[in-house]
Amino acid sequence: MSDLAVDSPDSPNCPGVVGILGAGRAGTAFARALLRAGYEVDIAGTRPPKALRHHLRIYAPGAQAVDADDVAARAREQERAVVILAVPQEDLDEVEADWADGCVMVDATNAWHHEILPDWLQRAVDTDQPTSTAIAARFPGARTVKALNHIAHADFDDIRPELPRDQRRAAGAAGDVDADRGMVMAMLDRMGFDPVSMGPLGASRIMEPDGPLFDRRLRREDLLRRLR
């Protein structure tokens, strides 16, 4: 799994539009990195699009503010759709279960000790299960890949896509479907990371806040070492 091939950024499997649900510090950091990589970005937050536009002009210029109901609309028009879940886990009960239906949903969320989580998610935390598996069950119409969550939002402005892969910061992706994981890895590559397959979704536990990958500037060999 760790040597899974990455789709070429020019492949028709690689989307040109990515939707992001969540316009906080993480969501806008993802948007800036995607825009620099040449993607179009639709983003929705708690504010209506008209109110969100000013926020995006400052924090993610070029991103398009949309309603939460429409954040996946343009993504679904592509051969393969990718959306990013970037809302606080404590607010996940407020997210419609079908918002990402038919899409590869990148779970970029984290569980923080100070948050009061939904009961269904707290049960996963209490039993030491990866939160991504509970989130995948919560959004059954989407195909979940865990990625982006183990890198601090402030670090996304320091990505250097001009570097060869072996000199870049590594970024992990975990998901049960090889093709979906490969497509997310292609997105990470285009953003400027060295993408590493972590294997199935259950392996994402080591990417969470108390895991060995979280908020650390690591290279490919460091991530692969954790998989052995």
UniProtKB/TrEMBL annotation:
InterPro entries: NAD(P)-bd_dom_sf, P5C_Rdtase_cat_N, STEAP_metalloreductase
Stated name of the protein: NAD(P)-binding domain-containing protein
Top-rank taxon, per record: Bacteria
Domain Pyrroline-5-carboxylate reductase catalytic N-terminal: 18-110
Cleavable signal peptide: none
Gene3D superfamilies in the cross-refs: NAD(P)-binding Rossmann-like Domain
Keyword tags: Oxidoreductase
